[in-house]
Design goal:
The complex is a heterodimer of chains A (485) and B (490). Chain A is an alpha/beta fold and 485 residues long. Chain A is built from 15 helices and 11 strands. Chain A has a domain of 247 residues: Amidase signature (AS) enzymes, CATH 3.90.1300. Classes of the chains: A alpha/beta (485), B alpha+beta (490). Chain A: Belongs to the amidase family. GatA subfamily.
């Protein structure tokens, strides 16, 4: 059952071929048996999952519920879940049990009737590209457990790739959905900024953070994204605009779809083998009727430096609340207030988080604000303008998701800058706020390669349809890692 | 030392809590005095993952204030985060406004007394800006040993911070400005004005310079002075202190000072060098706030009549003196009370004004009560004034009726009539009983009668008094006068 699509699982449940309890138990058993090799879950909420499964079975027995009712799902541990530890991958929040549900948690579980299997491992406060900054230890890539799964949503992708969940929620501030999806043969979509509520999603960089989903196919992703999306009055940056039907939108031909390949995304730094898989995929799309052209996003090289000003600045502010006073880690035997603050934060945050807080504090400081933060905001506008111009002549922008396949655990932990360059192709979409998706387009030495599609604002349906059409013609996404079949 | 050589330069920052039911960025209640932390929801606590949503009523109140001080209302204003660590600041930053406040470039005219009989001088004080922000919680040190208690009920209460230009030149001007501002925000219904509970708080920026000097001296900021009297004392102290320092060869240090109401002194709290770098930046959780011309005009249409306009109207509509109009429009509730007495009694507006600003306010002052909980309501007072107007009672008897109403001897809108009836205070307007009383008085006082008739005109008052006494004060004084004149005539 764990290799079936979400559509098939839903049909099976409604046809009473199996119950949600049976399905949930199977996943729980797989987690118990296989997750010790991966470390993809921080918390497994078995008891709660079975209760939700029973509730779903009751709804299904009455003929109620929707396409997702009774289907299990893993939540990234960045979403607040009432009564369940919500750690954000940090020692700082190891003792934090959220007293409320994030909006998307309510939408997916209370409303859509999905069953929460547990909370997935992640880079601490979503800061990382390898899942090695988690206080709960690194996650291993199911395709090669000596390699990283990517980050920050490393637990979410490892769990789905290994069949420990049919799909998982994830978040993307600079590529944290797409890069790990690429490294684990999954489809991951970061929707338009404002499409999915951020309420209850622990903030890293508020103007960039966006929740999305990782799944084994564009179709699976469409089902879950449909249920997550929509306006939320509790999030002032949420956009009040109809979501449309992402699932029924999948059947469309891509004949005449104009796809632009930005030359900057195929320049130096891209591994040849990855380039070649991506170009193979372009040929498939072309054969399906897509019209391919080369375009330019001239300000692309500015994405990484811009991001590493804006994101740490916002992070330094968002993480100021973790002070040991009301919740979270509190240093023992504080001598005075300042000692309480300093030691609680020094003990509670790991080195990467501390590094970004320091960078962010610096760029917002008096006398540096204009030179860094304000300038970065201006560059951000230029990057947005690049895309605006591009979408005048093309419908989608296509490129590699990452420069290379998954790297070895520990390979980049001592070199923050080379780690930051992992997000070189993914950051621009966050800076511009546009939707972007990564899907698998083949393998290099048994390791998955990701293809990135970027769309105009609110073009999630077009992105998902293009990915789905490609997946109709290929079967990369159907492959499972050895040992986790 | 010659104080006359010096002039003070003062600017005030007033924090005014807005009278919204819920907080500026969440639905938690704002009522004062609840048990600690019972009004702290997830947003107030700054829990992980929560987001702010602007309270539209708070925005409207800020716009109302801006319109009331003839200020510009920003078409687009931006919330910014102001960072510092303190246990009663849950997020580690305060959401405030920095570069683009909602209100800017306004002014308030204050009146400076030139003695009782002279026209006051009008002075215009510039209002640089007023911005919206959230209040912090409270740190409680009393009643705890070795720990500090944190109460976050107040955290997130909407404030406007009103910043004046450095146009104020004395403690008296500062108080006049503050009182005017206080009156205005209470009139607007955007603040309860309770200084004791911290709804209206003032920080004073003070510097001194020699007269004729155009540059400003170094200023100090005295924090949280929470009554008009303390503001006056703190500023006076600070002016004297600064002059002393400079005249004895010292220099003023830019610093924050704290006023001690027990000693009347200010003391240094922190210098500029220890000041926080607040690292302001636009809050990415909140979109810029757009106030269109339509929004602004819609809000303007809901504005109540403001004190100045009301004062003008009272002088023209009711023919009141400027002084009476000023007193009666001091508070919106008082003005409403007065207008209802005029309307319900149908009596002369000036007569009503005398009763409201004289006897009623005097009595309330003694009782320590507000107009809002006066034991004599407007309909009660109107009922009594109507009886004066229709000559049922005299003004003198009315004093007794008023005292009886104040003492609670009768309730309800017709309390005055009930008292007049119960005590038999109806004025005697028939000639018969008055003539009988006059005859009695004349018979009892032959000597005075003879003297009067002999040319001692002054004795007329004596006879009036005797007749009034004989009628227990109930005789109509005009009638007594008229009949006595006839009877006493030789």
């Amino acid at each position: 059952m764990h290799r079936q699509s979400i559509k098939a699982l839903g049909e099976g449940l409604r046809a009473k071929k199996f119950s949600s309890r049976e399905l949930t138990q199977q996943y729980l058993q797989r987690i118990e048996a296989l997750d010790p090799q991966l470390n993809s879950y921080i918390s497994v909420t078995a008891e709660q999952a079975l209760a939700q499964a029973d509730a779903a079975d009751t709804r299904l027995a009455r003929g109620e519920g929707g396409p997702l009712t009774g289907i299990p799902l893993a939540q990234k541990d960045i979403f607040c879940t009432q009564g369940v530890k919500t750690s954000c991958g940090s020692k700082m929040l190891d003792n934090f049990v959220a007293p409320y549900d994030a909006t998307i948690v309510g939408k997916l579980h209370a409303d859509a009737g999905m069953v929460m299997l547990g909370k997935c491992n992640m880079d601490e406060f979503a800061m990382g590209s390898s899942n090695e900054t988690s206080w709960y230890g690194p996650v291993k890539n199911p395709w090669d457990t000596t390699r990283v799964p990517g980050g920050s949503s490393g637990g979410s992708v490892a769990a789905v790739a290994a069949g420990l969940a049919p799909a998982a929620t994830a978040t993307d501030t600079g590529g944290s959905i797409r890069q790990p999806a690429a490294l684990t043969n999954l489809t991951g979509i970061k929707p338009t900024y404002g499409r999915v509520s951020r309420y209850g999603m622990i903030a890293f960089a508020s103007s960039l953070d966006q929740a999305g989903v990782v799944a084994r196919s564009a179709e699976d992703a469409a089902y879950v994204l449909q249920a997550m999306s929509g306006f939320d009055p509790l999030d002032s940056t949420s956009i009040d605009r109809p979501v449309g039907d992402l699932v029924t939108g999948l059947g469309q031909s891509i004949k005449g779809l104009r796809i632009g390949l930005p030359r900057e995304y195929f320049a130096e730094g891209l591994a040849d083998a990855v380039r070649s898989r991506v170009m193979d995929a372009v040929k498939v799309l072309e054969a399906q009727g897509a019209v391919i052209s080369e375009i330019s996003l001239p300000n692309s090289p500015l994405s990484v430096p811009t991001y590493y000003v804006v994101a740490p600045a916002e992070a330094s502010s968002n993480l100021a609340r973790y002070d040991g006073v009301r919740y979270g880690h509190r240093a023992a035997d504080a001598k005075n207030l300042e000692d309480l603050y300093k030691r609680s934060r020094a003990e509670g945050f790991g080195p990467e988080v501390q590094r970004r807080i320091m960078v962010g504090t610096y760029v917002l400081s008096h006398g540096y604000y204009d030179a860094y933060y304000l300038k970065a905001q201006k560059v951000r506008k230029l990057i947005y303008d690049d895309f605006r111009r591009a979408f005048e002549s093309v419908d989608l922008v296509l490129g590699p998701t990452t420069t290379d396949v998954a790297f070895a655990l520990g390979a980049k932990t001592d070199d923050p800058v080379s780690m930051y360059l992992n997000d070189i192709y993914t950051i621009a979409a966050n800076l511009a706020g546009i939707p972007a998706l990564s899907l698998s387009c083949g393998f290099v030495d048994g390791l998955p390669v990701g293809l990135q599609l970027m769309g105009n604002y609110f073009d999630e349906a077009r992105l998902l349809n293009a990915a789905h059409q490609y997946q109709q013609a290929t079967d990369w996404h159907m492959q499972a890692p050895k040992g986790f079949e | 030392m010659d104080r006359q050589e010096w002039e003070a330069v003062i600017g005030l920052e007033v924090h005014c809590q807005l009278l919204t039911k819920s907080k500026i960025f969440s639905g938690a209640a704002t009522a004062y005095g609840a048990a600690p932390n019972t009004q702290a929801d997830a947003v107030t606590l700054g829990l992980p993952g929560v987001l702010p949503v602007l309270n539209g009523t708070a925005l409207e109140m800020a716009v109302k204030f801006g319109l009331a001080v003839d200020a510009q209302i920003a078409e687009r204003c931006v919330f910014a985060r102001k960072h510092y660590f303190y246990p009663d600041l849950p997020k580690g930053y305060q959401i405030s406004q920095y570069e683009l406040p909602i209100v800017y470039q306004g002014h308030l005219d204050i009146e400076l007394s030139n003695g009782k009989d002279a026209e006051p001088t009008v002075k215009r004080i510039g209002i640089t800006r007023a911005h919206m922000e959230e209040d912090a919680g409270k740190s409680l040190h009393e009643g705890f040993v070795g720990i500090t208690g944190i109460d976050l009920n107040r955290a997130g209460t909407p404030l406007i911070e009103i910043v004046s230009e450095p146009d104020i030149r004395s403690a008296a001007e500062a108080v006049a400005y503050l009182k005017k501002l206080h009156q205005l925000v209470v009139y607007l219904g955007i603040c309860d004005g309770n200084m004791q509970e911290g709804s209206f708080r003032c920080d004073a920026n003070v510097s001194v310079r020699r007269k004729g000097e155009t540059k400003f001296g170094t200023r100090t900021e005295t924090k949280n002075v929470n009554s008009f009297r303390f503001v006056e004392k703190a500023i006076e102290y600070e002016i004297e202190r600064q002059i002393d320092v400079i005249e004895s060869g010292g220099r003023i240090v830019q610093e924050t000072r704290l006023f001690n109401p027990d000693t009347g002194e200010t003391r240094a709290m922190r210098t500029k060098e220890d000041a926080n770098d607040y690292r302001y930046f636009p809050d990415p959780d909140l979109l810029p706030v757009v106030v269109t011309t339509d929004d602004r005009e819609r809000i303007r249409a809901t504005m109540p009549e403001l004190p100045e306009a009301k004062k003008q109207r009272f002088t023209t509509q009711y023919g009141l003196s400027k002084y009476d109009a000023t007193v009666l429009t001091g508070e919106a509730a008082l003005a409403d009370y007065y207008e209802s007495v005029v309307k319900l009694s149908g009596a002369d507006a000036k007569l009503c004004a005398n009763w409201v600003s004289g006897d009623l306010l005097g009595a309330l002052n003694k009782l320590g009560r507000d107009i809002g909980d006066s034991p004599v309501t407007a309909p009660m007072l109107a009922g009594m004034v109507a009886r004066i107007a229709d000559k049922t009672i005299s003004g003198k008897i009315a004093k007794d009726v008023f005292e009886a109403m104040l003492g609670g001897e009768a309730q309800g809108d017709d309390a005055a009539d009930a008292i007049i009836k119960a005590k038999g205070l109806v004025q005697i307007t028939d000639e018969g009983p008055v003539l009988a009383a006059i005859d009695e008085v004349m018979a009892k006082n032959p000597q005075q009668l003879a003297d009067y008739r002999g040319g001692k005109d002054k004795l007329f008052g004596f006879f009036v008094g005797q007749v009034m006494r004989a009628t227990q004060g109930k005789a109509n004084p005009d009638l007594v006068n008229k009949l006595l004149k006839d009877k006493l005539a030789p």
